[in-house]
Amino acid sequence: MTGDHPETPAPAVGDGSGQRCGLVAIVGKPNVGKSTLLNALVGQKISITSRKAQTTRHRITGIRTTGTSQFVFVDTPGFQTRHGTALNRSLNKTVLGAVGDVDVVLFVVEAGKFTLGDAKVLSLLKPGIPALLVANKLDQVGRRGDIAPWLRDMQERHAFAEFVPMSARNDKDVERLFAIVGKYLPEQPWWYGEDELTDRSEKFLAGETVREKLFRLTGEELPYTSTVVVDKFEEEPSPQHGRFVRIAATIVVERDGHKAIIIGDKGERLKRIGTEARQELEKLLGAKVFIELWVKVRSGWADDEARVRSFGYE
C-alpha cells in the first residue's frame, strides 16, 4: 500500500497497450449504501459501514483491476445539509472535489426514492462528466413495476448516461456494474499494481476499523462528531506470529456523558470495541494485533478548524 495521498497516483504500471484506467466517484446522500457498494466493488472491506448516517469521512480510494481495466474508486462522505460545523464544511469540500475531477460518477440513491438530500447531491454533478444512476437496495422494492415511472421521473431530473438498478449485496449485479462502468474509462496505462486494493495506509485503515466498531456498538447513543486518532502503529519482530502489529488509539468525544457511554458498565463496551477491531484488523493486515484504546473528551472539536485538520480531515 502507498501513502495517504489519493491525488497523486503512482507511476504507470505496465506498457499501457490496450489498458484502461480511470477515476470513478461514488456520491450520494448519507446512508444510501455507498460504502457497502465500494467494498463490494473492491472485493474487500476498505470503507467502514454502519447504520449510522455519516460514518464515511475521508476520500477513500479503492482499486480493482479486472481484465485490461483498472477502476480507481473514490468514496465520498454523504453530503451534509443540516449543520454548518467546520467538520461538515470539510466533508462537503471533499464531495465537491471528488465530483469535479473524475471520468465517471456513480450517483447512488435508494431505488424508488428521491428526497431533498438526494436532490442536493444531484445538483453538485458537473455537466460533461457522465453520471450513472445506481438505484441501490433494489431487493427492498416491493413491486418491480413501480420502478419504471420512477426511472422516467429521474431521467427528467438529470441526463443520466445509464440506469443501473441493483443491490450492492448481489454479486451478479456488481459484476454487471463493472461491465457498464468499464466503457467510460479512458484508454491509458494503469496507475497502480494489479493486486493493490487501496492507496490508504494500514494506519489509516486501523483508525477506520476502530471507528466502525465504535458506531456499531454504541448505536444512536453517540453523536457522529466522535472520532478516532491512531497514536501508535508499530510493527515488531515476532518469531512466534510472523507479523506482529501494536496499535494505540484514542477515541475523541465531545462530552463526559459520551465517554461513559463508550466505556460502558465496568469497561465492558470499550473492551468489546477493542476485541472486535482487533479481530477484524488481524484478518485485514494478516498479522497478530495488540490494540490499546483510550477515551478523551475534547469539547467543541468539530467546530474548531485547526483541530478538525489535526485529526486528519482535509
UniProtKB/TrEMBL annotation:
Membrane topology, record value: Peripheral membrane protein
GO biological process: ribosomal small subunit assembly
Segments of this protein annotated with the region G2: 54-58
Main location: cytoplasm
Cellular component terms (Gene Ontology): cytosol; plasma membrane
Binding site for GTP: 28-35, 75-79, 136-139
Function, in words: An essential GTPase that binds both GDP and GTP, with rapid nucleotide exchange. Plays a role in 16S rRNA processing and 30S ribosomal subunit biogenesis and possibly also in cell cycle regulation and energy metabolism.
The protein's name in its UniProt record: GTPase Era
Species assigned in the record: Ramlibacter pinisoli
Lineage: Bacteria, Pseudomonadati, Pseudomonadota, Betaproteobacteria, Burkholderiales
Gene for this chain: era
